Automatic annotation (TrEMBL):
Protein name: Cyclic pyranopterin monophosphate synthase
Binding site for substrate: L76, C77, H78, M114, E115
Ranges of residues in domain Molybdopterin cofactor biosynthesis C (MoaC): 16-151
InterPro entries reported for this sequence: MoaC (IPR023045), MoaC_bact/euk (IPR047594), MoaC_sf (IPR036522), MoCo_biosynth_MoaA/MoaC (IPR050105), Mopterin_CF_biosynth-C_dom (IPR002820)
Described purpose of this protein according to its UniProt entry: Catalyzes the conversion of (8S)-3',8-cyclo-7,8-dihydroguanosine 5'-triphosphate to cyclic pyranopterin monophosphate (cPMP).
Classification via Gene3D superfamilies: Molybdopterin cofactor biosynthesis C (MoaC) domain
C-alpha cells in the first residue's frame, strides 16, 4: 500500500496525477451501499404506484449518468471512457431497504473506483429525492468499494 497521498506534488500542492506513462489495462471496480426506509415507502416503490414514476428505473439511469460525469464532480479525477456500467438494485424487507451495487469498467490508464462509488451515491440520492415527500428519515449507509482489478496495483477486494 502506498505511504503517500498521490494527489499532492513535492511542494504539497494539489495536482492531477500523471497517468500518461501507465499501461492501458482492463479496469473494473465494484462498489455498493444501501438506503434504509419505512416499510410503506419500500412498498410504494415496489408496487410502482409512486406518483413520481418508476423510482428504481430512474435511479438506475441517474447512477449510470453520474458515473459518466465523475470527472466533472471530483476535481482531480481523470475523465474516463467507460466501457460498461451496471447498476443493480435489490430490495430488502428486513430492514426495509434497497441495496445498490455498481460495476464500472474501462480499458485505460487509471482505475474506475471513483466512477463506481459516485454512481452508488447518486443512485441512492435519487431514490431519496423521489421518496422524500413520504419518508424524510431514509438513511444512506455502508457505501464502500467492494473490489477493484487492473493496473499496476492489481486486484483488491473486501469480499471474503
Amino acid at each position: 500500500m502506498p505511504d503517500e497521498l498521490t494527489h499532492f506534488n513535492a511542494q504539497g500542492q494539489a495536482h492531477m496525477v500523471d497517468v500518461g506513462d501507465k499501461a492501458s489495462t482492463k479496469r473494473v471496480a465494484i462498489a455498493c451501499g444501501s438506503i434504509r426506509m419505512q416499510a410503506t415507502t419500500l412498498e410504494k416503490i415496489l408496487q410502482g404506484n409512486h406518483k413520481k414514476g418508476d423510482v428504481l428505473g430512474i435511479a438506475r439511469i441517474a447512477g449510470i449518468m453520474a458515473s459518466k460525469r465523475t470527472a466533472d464532480l471530483i476535481p482531480l479525477c481523470h475523465p474516463l471512457a467507460l466501457t460498461h456500467v451496471d447498476v443493480a438494485l435489490t430490495p430488502q424487507t428486513d430492514p426495509p431497504s434497497i441495496d445498490c451495487t455498481v460495476t464500472a469498467e474501462t480499458h485505460g490508464q487509471t482505475g474506475v473506483e471513483m466512477e463506481a462509488l459516485t454512481a452508488v451515491q447518486i443512485t441512492l440520492l435519487t431514490i431519496y429525492d423521489m421518496c422524500k415527500a413520504v419518508d424524510k428519515g431514509m438513511i444512506m449507509e455502508n457505501i464502500h468499494l467492494l473490489h477493484k482489478s487492473g493496473g499496476k496495483s492489481g486486484n483488491w477486494s473486501s469480499i471474503k
